[in-house]
Amino acid sequence: MTIAANHKHDLLFLPGLLSNERFWQPHVDASEEKLPGQFRAQIVKLSSAETFDELADEILRRAPDRFGLIGHSLGGYIALEIMARAPERISCLVLVNSSAFVDKPEGKSARLKMIDAVSAGKFEGVYNRVVGALAPDGNDAIKYTMLAMAKDYTADRFINHQKAIIGRPDRTDELGKIKCPTLIVSGTRDPVTLPSASAFMHKAISGSSHVEIDAGHMAPLEAPDEFSAALTEFLNATYATAGAEA
Asked: Which pLDDT belongs to residue 50?
């Protein structure tokens, strides 16, 4: 079957923890500008579900029959959950500042402490500390965007998503089963998801591409031009190849 030139490929963008549509919108716009008429993009608003089972099921129920998945951090974890459940529906996969590993004990402990603090009414203090740790030094615009997204996240969603992350399964043994075109993007200065985690996924997923960006954990915000260029090149190559197949 040949994919018609005017066919719009569906893409789902999954945000990370304390993020929303503002994180992905510039890259949706850039993809539409550079590859006009080729994609129908949706930025998913994650519910307050507290397990990856629920989050993945909700997305799959609302999603088109076949779609590409682009996930940042938490969104990447969910993308891997969806891939494990319905690989036949995924046309391509983009994992950004994300990992197939579960948290180490110290990571889980830090998340539990944040849950306790937010449960005690200290959500604003928690998200201010998180943003302060992740926002690049000297870039007030990015920090402002991150704070605005975090403020809109709500305490309940934050608690439930932290619980989901703590309880997520290890997906490292399943990476070799991924057969769709895959792009992995890492920040060379990411303090949360170390570049080695991205390198591991790249090695485990046959035929995947790996782009390293001079950025931290919020690579698409910190280096938007470099990220958009990498994403556009990947999408163009992926769907141009698909369109050439009979």
From this structure: 95
- Residues 6 or more apart whose Cβ sits within 8 Å of residue 27: 13, 220, 224, 227, 228, 231
Which parts of the chain sit beneath pLDDT 70?
1-7, 241-246
For residue range 50-87, list pLDDT tens digits in order. 999 999 999 999 999 999 999 999 999 999 999 999 99
Domains and CATH numbers, the chain: 9-102+171-244 (3.40.50.1820)
Q: Is 212 helix (H, G, I), strand (E, B) or coil?
A: strand
DSSP 89: G
What does the block give as tokens for 106? 């110290």
pTM for this model (two decimals): 0.93
Give, in order, the Cα–Cα distances in Å from 239 to each of 36, 38, 120, 243. Answer: 13, 9, 48, 6
Q: Can you tell me the distance from the alpha carbon of 175 to that of 195, in angstroms, rounded to the nearest whole number?
A: 17
Q: How far is CA 85 from CA 19, 59, 172, in A?
A: 24, 11, 15
